[in-house]
Design a protein that fits this description.
alpha+beta; 55% helix; four-stranded antiparallel β-sheet; Ubiquitin-like (UB roll)
């Protein structure tokens, strides 16, 4: 009799975690859809760390940077600073950056 209860409990547990996994996948799909729509509109899904307003992607010398129209903040994604410094390898800042990294 104990084995029957254990099997039922295991089955309910599996059902619970399968349902939670499906819910998590649906949430991720919704976030991806919002991000794709924002990218198509030229808007970032992130908000400005300084003032909380929405960020707009701007093309600066073939690099997409995030700018805030409210406070004027400029925000770089991972790797964008390095990419910009490689484009201008003769500047004092790029020499300093690559010497220390």
């Amino acid at each position: 009799m104990t084995d029957g209860l254990d099997d039922r409990r295991r089955g309910l547990e599996e059902e619970y975690f399968n349902r939670k996994n499906r819910e998590a996948i649906e949430k991720l799909r919704a976030k991806i859809k919002i991000a794709e729509e924002a990218k198509a509109a030229g808007m970032s899904t992130m908000s400005c760390p300084r003032c909380g307003d929405s960020l707009k992607e701007t093309n600066y010398e073939q690099i997409l940077i995030d700018t805030c129209e409210k406070c004027g903040g400029i925000w770089l994604d991972s790797g964008e600073l390095e990419k910009r410094l490689q484009q201008d390898s003769q500047s004092w800042f790029s020499r300093l950056w690559f010497a220390n990294n």
